[in-house]
Specification:
Elements (H helix, E strand, L loop, with lengths): L1 E7 L6 E2 L5 E4 H16 L4 E3 L4 E3 L5 E2 L2 E3 L6 E3 L2 E7 L2 E7 L7
Antiparallel strand pairs: 1-10, 2-3, 3-5, 4-7, 6-9, 7-8, 9-10
Length: 101
C-alpha cells in the first residue's frame, strides 16, 4: 500500500539543524503518515516514527512502525518525504504486507 498526502509543517515545530535543513520531530512525521492512511482507508492507525529530529529533505526515508488498531498487529511502514518547500512537505507511506514478528 502506498499513500501520499501534502502535509504542511508548522514553522513553529521546525528547527534548523547544523546542516541548514529544516527539521521536524518524528512525531510530526507519525501524525502526517497516520493522517494520510486515515484518508485512504478510513481508519487512523497508530504510527511510531521515533522521537529523533527528521531532516526535511526530498528523499529522506524514516523507518516507522504502524499498529493496526483493530488487531494490534505491527507492520514496518517506511515513510518517504518529498515535495519539500520550506516547512511544507508530502509523505508517502509504504506498509508491509505481513506483520512484524
Amino acid at each position: 500500500m502506498l499513500v501520499s498526502v501534502l502535509s504542511a509543517g508548522a514553522l513553529a515545530g521546525c528547527t534548523v539543524s547544523a546542516s541548514s535543513n529544516l527539521t521536524v520531530p518524528g512525531s510530526d512525521i507519525s501524525d502526517s503518515a497516520a493522517g494520510a492512511l486515515e484518508e485512504q482507508i478510513g481508519i487512523r492507525p497508530e504510527m511510531d516514527c521515533g522521537d529523533d529530529q527528521v531532516d526535511l529533505v526530498d528523499g529522506t526515508v524514516v523507518d516507522c512502525v504502524l499498529t493496526d488498531p483493530s488487531t494490534g498487529s505491527t507492520f514496518d511502514a517506511p515513510v518517504t518525504i518529498s515535495g519539500v518547500d520550506g516547512s511544507e512537505y508530502r509523505v508517502s507511506v509504504e506498509v508491509a504486507d505481513t506483520p512484524r514478528e
